[in-house]
Every structure is written in C-alpha cells, then in structure tokens.
Amino acid sequence: MADVRNPTPGYLAFWRERHVCTLTTLRPDGTPHVVPVGVTYDPEAGVARVITGKGTRKVANILAAGPEGARVAVCQMHKARWATLEGVATIRSEPEAVADAESRYAERYERTPRPNPERIVIEIAVDRALGNA
Questions:
Q1: pLDDT tens digits for 13-44?
Q2: What is the 3-state secondary structure (H, E, C) of the chain?
Q3: What phi and psi values does residue 8 have, to the nearest 5 degrees?
Q4: What span, in angstroms and rounded, lies between the C-alpha atoms of 114 and 112?
Q5: Which residues pair with 87 in a beta bridge?
Q6: Cβ atoms within 10 Å, residue 93
Q7: Mean pLDDT of all residues in the chain?
Q8: Do residues 39 and 50 touch, judged by C-beta distance below 8 A?
C-alpha cells in the first residue's frame, strides 16, 4: 500500500504518466457506477481531480450523497502496475477551480480539453492510496 502522506517516487511518477483511469461512485441504491475518466493527482494538496459535465451520472451520484460528499475511488493500471486513490468527493463549479483542473488535465494528458460551458470538477480529498506502481 502506498502512503498517502509520503508516496514513493515511483507511485507519483505513475500518476504523472498518461493513462485512462476509472472513477467509481455509488448510485443512490448502493450499486457501483464505474466509468472511464482522466484524473490528475496533486499529492502536496492530497487532492485528485476529474473534469466532467455537470449533468453526468457520476456528478448526480456524488450530489445525492449530500453536502459532506461521497466516498469514491479512482484507479489506473498498465500491465502489472496499478494505483488507486480513495477519498471523499465534492463538486466544484467556481471558474477558477475549473480552469485550474483543466490546466492540470492538459498537462497530464498532453491535450487541451474541448470547450464545455457545463464543465465542473469532481475534487477528491484523498485519504487512502493503494497500488504496486
């Protein structure tokens, strides 16, 4: 297991590589909803971010959990390497938060996200890190 407060250089390097990830949220009935996403990880702040449209099922699942946020997990894998970040997700819609998340996405994925006036940020306060990267 990776130490969320002191991840290894290899673990951090893996989160800087370009990989499609998955985001797992829980529907109101408790069943998992897993979708492919792009994720950026800021270990100094202990935050992972996903940019998405505000009308998506993943956003609805997080909002349904209430103002305290929802437990979620993001995961990526490549061959035998894998890494998962878990934590509490909340929704951010402030223009500066969205612009920051878009910039981080562009850096990691080496492409600017297409314009989306409905874009929001799923911000995950990471409290657990697992993996063998």
A1: 999 999 999 999 999 999 999 999 999 999 99
A2: CCCCCCCCHHHHHHHHCCCCEEEEEECCCCCEEEEEECCEEECCCCEEEEEEECCCHHHHHHHHCCCCCEEEEEEEEECCEEEEEEEEEEEECCHHHHHHHHHHHHHHHCCCCCCCCCEEEEEEEEEEEEECC
A3: -70, 155
A4: 6
A5: 72, 126
A6: 12
A7: 95
A8: yes
Tell me the residue type at 129. Answer: A
Largest Cα–Cα distance of the chain, in whole Å?
A: 39
Look at the block and give the residue holding tokens 């929704």: 91
Task: State both tokens at 130.
Answer: 């697992």
Contact 58, 35 (CB under 8 A): yes
Residue 50 near residue 74 (C-beta atoms within 8 A): yes
> How would you label 53-69 residue by residue, b for 16+ Cβ within 10 Å and e otherwise?
eeebebbebbeebeeeb
Ramachandran class of 11: left when φ > 0, alpha when ψ lies in -120 to 50, beta otherwise: alpha
Which structure tokens are listed for 52? 């998405």
Q: Is the pLDDT higher at 124 or at 8?
A: 124
